[in-house]
Design brief:
Layout: H1 12-24, E1 33-35, H2 36-43, H3 47-59, E2 63-66, E3 70-73, H4 78-100, H5 105-120, H6 124-139, H7 145-165, H8 172-188, H9 191-213
Antiparallel strand pairs: 1-3, 2-3
Length: 219
């Protein structure tokens, strides 16, 4: 793989972003070691910004520092995944309830368009980004920017792991059916059905992520 060296004035945050993108793209898998000296040589920087970038990614939960060697790509633990999904259930159910009465024909058409694109996705990153776009469009009418930011924060570690361990074929039909059922429930103004479908969708997603975490998931 050819890497374009970073400019000498590059900050640790810029390097952290490059490393984050490489991990998200699957260059390194959970458990893989990122060595400081190799990263410094590859990106054309000293070890100081490398150490700072690795520390930044550690604070995000993406890496675990391996002293004197570098850092390993984190693998989320089952308890962490459970907690993240419990919190997602609370935040997303509230966003959906607040958004439901504010959807209109235009926003419903946008949801359908995003779902069509999601079903056509044939690569991991396209699949993850498509699912994020669908859920953001689902909740955006709630006009709760802090809750939407929290939704993104709770998704981030799950999405990174999913991009590495799962793929577009994971529960493809079930995923699509649940999304389209959500659109139909919103169009009908059925808050109870929408909440139930979302809860089932998140529980099913939790199950496949936990299975992948234990090494039993579909790739």
């Amino acid at each position: 793989m050819i890497t374009i060296p970073l400019a000498p004035a590059t900050t640790a945050s810029a390097l952290a972003q490059r490393l984050r993108e490489a991990i998200d793209a699957g260059r390194w898998q959970p458990g893989d070691l990122l060595r400081q000296e190799q990263l410094a040589a590859e990106y054309g920087v000293s070890r100081i910004p490398v150490r700072e970038a690795l520390a930044q990614l550690q604070s995000e939960g993406l890496l675990e520092i391996a002293h004197y060697r570098g850092a390993r790509v984190s693998r989320p633990q089952a308890a962490e995944i459970d907690e993240l999904f419990d919190l997602r259930q609370l935040v997303e159910s509230d966003l959906l309830a607040r958004a439901l009465g504010r959807h209109d024909q235009r926003s419903l058409r946008e949801l359908a368009r995003l779902q069509d694109a999601l079903e056509d996705a044939d690569d991991r990153l396209g699949w993850i980004s498509g699912d994020i776009a669908f859920h953001e469009a689902l909740y955006r009418p709630a006009e709760r920017p802090r809750s939407l930011a929290l939704f993104r924060q709770l998704r981030a570690p799950i999405d990174r792991f999913s991009a590495q361990a799962l793929g577009p074929g994971t529960r493809k039909q079930g995923w699509a059916d649940e999304h389209r059922q959500l659109i139909a429930a919103i169009a009908a103004g059925d808050a109870t059905a929408a909440r139930t479908i979302l809860e089932q969708h998140l529980q099913a997603t939790r199950a496949v992520v936990l299975a992948a975490c234990s090494g039993d998931g579909e790739r």
